[in-house]
Write a structure and sequence with these properties.
The chain is mainly alpha-helical. It is built from twelve helices and no strands.
């Protein structure tokens, strides 16, 4: 089987996983269910992915690669940007990656622990490239930022992203529980949470 054919088969599996994840929770999705969304059998999937977690990690990787392209577009299409405008543009790229945010809110330890090291390396490379893409934007648009300032922003920003989805997307059950204990929950969108966080980190 050619590499091109292998990549197409893997892509079909990842897309099936994506479509299911848009409807169901991680715990409800099985390799059998994923196989039913593809053109081949469940045993065939094991030729490409050993576990369900590896499939999700590959989906995660794809999400980071797509997001990195959107960040690169900001850098390439703008000569200069104010902090406010950059925060807005970057927040919009995050708003468009709700699936990535949902994946970030999962238990990453289990996902990574149940994947082979080569799959994990591929994922980490995509993750690292997204960090580099944001760093290149900071270097271009905010030359007054020192290397220390830039690294502080990156560490804080990428940690902050883990919490956006749980705060912006709450279930009816969660809302009911918070109402009963008197928690005044701020109703902000993904964009609003992202924009406020980025603006705050930029100073």
């Amino acid at each position: 089987m050619s590499q091109e054919h292998t990549d197409l088969r893997k892509d079909e599996i990842i897309t099936a996983c994506k479509d299911l994840y848009d409807k169901y929770q991680f715990k409800d999705i099985t390799i059998k269910l994923i196989s039913e969304q593809t053109t081949f059998s469940r045993p065939s999937i094991y030729n490409y992915f050993e576990t369900k977690e590896e499939i999700f990690l590959a989906l995660f990787q794809r999400e980071y690669e797509e997001w990195k392209d959107a960040i690169d577009k900001i850098r390439k299409e703008n000569a200069t940007l104010t902090k406010d405008k950059f925060a807005s543009l970057l927040a919009h790229t995050i708003e468009e990656k709700e699936r990535l945010l949902k994946l970030l809110s999962m238990n990453m330890y289990d996902l990574e622990e149940n994947s082979r090291i080569e799959r994990l390396i591929e994922f980490k490379e995509a993750y690292g490239n997204s960090i580099k893409a944001v760093k290149l934007c900071l270097n271009k648009f905010f030359k007054e930022m020192t290397e220390v300032d830039t690294m502080k922003f990156l560490y804080s920003f990428f940690s902050f992203m883990f919490g956006i989805y749980p705060y912006a997307v709450i279930t009816k059950k969660q809302k009911e529980a918070m109402d009963k204990v008197g928690i005044n929950y701020p109703k902000y969108s993904i964009y609003e949470f992202a924009y406020m966080g980025i603006k705050k980190l930029l100073g």
